[in-house]
Design goal:
Blueprint: H1 2-22, E1 33-40, E2 46-49, E3 58-65, E4 106-109, E5 115-118, E6 126-129, H2 142-146, E7 148-151, E8 154-157, H3 160-179, H4 186-203
Antiparallel strand pairs: 1-2, 1-3, 4-5, 4-8, 6-7
Helix pairs in contact: 3-4
């Protein structure tokens, strides 16, 4: 029966591509996870590392997931108009971080208007020669000229916004100092940069 044979051959030819398409199944690779340890030693210095903290340090570990690229868009069939493919949103998008108040920062001003910043309230009390504050030093007796006067700086705490601006400036200065550090100070410069970066990341937008 030639007609029956021709029909059977045509049916098999249309069935084989569908079987091949259903057998092509891929597996998505799981995302890599990185554990970051925040170490605080007995002196309050902060370091960030991917290994557990040494003994005697306070260890706070965080698991971070590396972002993955979206799968490639399927190619448009020949002869059909190309579609505009919009990038897919990342699957593992991190939630917005919650900021904590920054550590205190003080601006201290001396009697003659010189300003400095301090992480602690430090008016720097000191006894300065009395002659520096007397308008007519030539009229002082020898005993008065040798006397001193106790003075201290005026220190005010900055607002959180102003403190963040100062912490960011200190981080920039620390990064520059690390680039110029010698081998005997490189470890300290690196830990100081890590400390300031952690403060900015935790407290400043």
């Amino acid at each position: 029966m030639p007609g029956m044979k021709a029909w059977l051959a045509l049916s098999l030819a249309s069935f084989l591509p569908a079987v091949g398409a259903s057998a092509a199944v891929g597996r998505a690779a799981s995302a890599d996870t990185v554990i970051i340890h925040r170490c605080v030693d007995a002196k309050g210095r902060v370091t960030l590392q991917d290994e557990p903290c040494p003994k005697g340090s306070r260890d706070t570990a965080r698991a971070l997931t590396r972002p993955r690229d979206p799968p490639p868009a399927p190619a448009a069939p020949a002869g059909s108009p190309a579609e505009v493919v919009r990038p897919a949103l990342p699957v593992d998008e991190a939630p917005p971080r919650e900021l904590i108040p920054p550590p205190p920062m003080y601006r201290c001003t001396s009697y003659d208007g010189i300003e400095r910043y301090s992480e602690q309230y430090d008016p720097n009390p000191r006894c300065e020669p009395y002659v520096l504050y007397y308008p007519y030093p030539n009229n002082l007796t020898q005993q008065q000229a040798l006397a001193c006067r106790w003075v201290e700086d005026s220190c005010v705490r900055l607002s959180d916004g102003a403190a963040c601006a100062r912490w960011k400036a200190m981080r920039k200065e620390a990064a520059s100092a690390l680039l110029r550090a010698f081998s005997d100070t490189a470890a300290y410069r690196k830990s100081e940069l890590a400390r300031l970066s952690q403060i900015v990341d935790d407290s400043c937008p």
